[in-house]
């Protein structure tokens, strides 16, 4: 066997497929683009869905990549099996309507066994195929010459790929035999034939023959265009070529593990032939090392792609990984933050193929360190909470164990360990039940999302060219109709209906890159059609959805007119998006990364990552910076160039979240803003006229959404609405509380109203009004508090003159109904009586709309003989609640 480093293996894979005319695709972000069905990119093919279902034309029908992927369902497997990671790299080759089974199998075999390439001895390889897939079986036997005892025909559960909807089909898997030393009972190929979990045969490559369409109800039809989709785990192949017991001793993880050894007292020990060390304690130690090495790598990559620790979705996963890794560190005796010091080891091992990690080192380290510190604080609070449960309840209920897990990150094992050390039981059964329920809920929440679109046959067939002429113009005379179709069929003509058309040249912008589609109309002697929508076709064609009044046929010419008002205002907003993006990066720093945007004629919104809270003055500063740039009258530049030039020469922002073509377009406003962008923009920043931020909300997980408007007219409208809203609130308060009128006299309000009708109303007016409103609100709250205090005193007054009476034992007692009072009032009253009489037992009950309450109090002098909680427990009304010798309270 050859000895190959991970980098050499990846390169050999990509070289091989490039030699076979495959187009190399850069690895893309772990955050899926336009795909709500996925939380993370979880395979190579997940990034290529639009090519597979026909929405987009691929740069070549043959593709190859090495794609980073995250599988959260494998987190529990990490460190337990030899071969699972949270984040791993999947090598792939793909055919989109090009070659199929025969060639895919031949390619795989050549790459794996040829001396020029991986040179794996063929007797070490085993194959599985779907039992009904006769073609695949015969290719392996007849074309490749696989011995029949090296190939197994298995069932649907292992050898048919189907996500329940969309493209699916049989697959063939290739396994590597690591030999008898990994198979102590010498079961041999039976392990494969019977699909028994084992360490001997490692699945390295899965080749899916995408052959059918599942309509979502398990009705299968042949796909109009068949595809090949394959995936092979890079880390697993590395462990084979580096002859290591698990993936963790390879050159990817080993430097991290060595670094962890340096900061703890434990050692990672392994022997060939058994990755579970004979010694149970050592196995646990090894697992801790593996989990840490795995989690720090996944976390570093996710943060570099713009995911920050948070309480939801991706942010939550990252938080969990960091917490888990920290807990494993504790098992190794590390008690402070340490994960951020491992980041450099991850970057060193991965930077050849992921050079962008180098620039992100600082961001990754700071983010992880912050989260570590935060978690360690939470953890000590968790200890306090657990201590309380142990001391007061003398047990840990399942509900509390789940609370410890969810709120304080306490794994159940930890809770059990601490509790059992102190002879306290944990209700594990209840915990497991609740835990499963919580998981089920999370699963269901995602289930109904459509994972794959049906392959749209009509779309895949569109092969006409169409040129966009609308960068500078909004009309195009004499455009030719080159394609007419509906969702069901391709047409040569149409009349008085809704159809899609493609023109040889069009000024209509198709919705993409966050910019809304153009609308408008097409016209000639025989018809007039409203263009309702424009969307992008598979080969960048602009597809117009039109409502026809009259008739058209292929070859007709039409004059095309874009709705100019909509386009103009959309452009102002799109350019405004670029400016606010840059301004936020200036004010808040470069961790601000745009993660989505939308702009149309009404305004703009932009999502961006940022891990801290944002102060109002920071927002104001960003807004002022944009306005300054508008007034600097900066001319817009556009450059078509290579990605290389875009980044090095024009310093364009590119975020690896999107796929870019070979030639990219850079939109630049001096050195202030430079972005890769296919949208339409104003000629000069002064055309934006004016800019104001109208809202900012946190979307959780370190993502914010900012909303803004541009242009004098839109801002005027916005300010008018805002002012009227504020004035109304002020007036409402004034009417409600005559006494606070001094804060805003009617005169002042009238003056402001006058101003608001004035066209040139200023933003300063809004600030002035907001200040008035804040003052009023504060004074109103103050007023309300006083009123409430007054009411309470009045309410309590009528219950203040109860006279205690001696009971059978001669002790003074007060037993009274105080209907209408709440618990808080009742406790105040009990205190009053305790102050008034030295020795008294008070029992008050109250029935009111909020419920029925009871409070029992015992004077200090009587507490040697009587206890409030004991009296409470035997009350005939059977209340539920708690307390101590002095006071008990509850509901009945
Ligand atoms: P397994 O049964 O081992 O979990 P799988 O059937 O889930 O594998 P596929 O979905 O077929 O795997 O993915 C293709 C390839 O990606 C696998 O052959 C394997 O090499 C690799 N792979 C899958 N999951 C992981 C993981 N969690 N960590 C590392 N590599 C993985
Ligand atoms: Mg799996």
TrEMBL record:
Cofactor(s) listed in the protein's UniProt record: Zn(2+)
Main localization, broad class: cytoplasm
Keyword Glycoprotein: no
Residue span(s) of domain Alanyl-transfer RNA synthetases family profile: 4-720
GO molecular function, one term: alanine-tRNA ligase activity
Protein name: Alanine--tRNA ligase
InterPro entries for the chain: aa-tRNA-synth_II/BPL/LPL, Ala-tRNA-lgiase_IIc, Ala-tRNA-ligase_IIc_anticod-bd, Ala-tRNA-synth_IIc_core, Ala-tRNA-synth_IIc_N, Ala-tRNA_ligase, Ala_tRNA_ligase_euk/bac, Thr/Ala-tRNA-synth_IIc_edit
SUPFAM superfamilies in alphabetical order: Class II aaRS and biotin synthetases, Putative anticodon-binding domain of alanyl-tRNA synthetase (AlaRS), ThrRS/AlaRS common domain, Translation proteins
GO cellular component assignments: cytosol
Family in the record: Belongs to the class-II aminoacyl-tRNA synthetase family.
Domain comment as written in the entry: Consists of three domains; the N-terminal catalytic domain, the editing domain and the C-terminal C-Ala domain. The editing domain removes incorrectly charged amino acids, while the C-Ala domain, along with tRNA(Ala), serves as a bridge to cooperatively bring together the editing and aminoacylation centers thus stimulating deacylation of misacylated tRNAs.
The keyword Amino-acid biosynthesis is annotated on this UniProt entry: no
Sites where the protein binds Zn(2+): 574, 578, 677, 681
Origin species: Mesoplasma melaleucae
